[in-house]
């Protein structure tokens, strides 16, 4: 009887229970075994992508144009840009600082923007310059799509995200790239130089609104950005150099050391003939040393009423030999 009872208990009670547990337990354990490696892989991929972005952002400063040449007469403007950046950082709102540098060709807008990007490097994690070609003779302005692609590549966005479905329209591509651009730079402060801009709508698309970035826009005329742009917008005219700045630049670019007493009237005439523009002064000033200031002023004045930059270029062109002119 005892043996029969134990057999019945095993068949009707314990064995069915054990069989049921053996069937249920593998089902519970299987998801854990399958998901654990996937989660680990995803986290590893995220770390790898973040590391790549950091490296690309650090390297982006090396792609900026060099700022080793003479830089005179713009320290006041450079200090003003720095103050605007610091004021934005002190605010409780996360907004980019947009500085619109406007002035005539040859006034040094681009040089000032690039110098600011180098000077404020420690305040930002990356930097990029985009030539929008707004007023380049014989060339079309840079499309917004191409500008976004350049910025995303230079600032470390995952390249696999920059692929499009076959047949996607230009408008769809711009919308998708704009979403990626703003998402990628959210919380990441960078410096962006938008050189030679003419389209306020294009500039707005390229302003990363959810970061403490610095966006420096260069334009010939004041560029009025939309009032609803979530950014600290400032306008800074870049005009002719003052007398002290022009004199400093002439001394720095002279090819040879000048001799003789200082010639105030001739210096004033050179500055006036060059319109006080840094580019014209730099080109003309490179003739000093071989020429006295009096001779340089006379030679510049011989070209009549022409554009200051063109006047300086013609002067240095005629200084070259036949072979150099052909080049």
TrEMBL record:
Domain AAA+ ATPase: 95-242
Source organism superkingdom: Bacteria
InterPro entries: AAA+_ATPase, AAA_16, P-loop_NTPase
Protein name in the entry: AAA family ATPase
Species in which this protein is naturally found: Streptomyces parvus
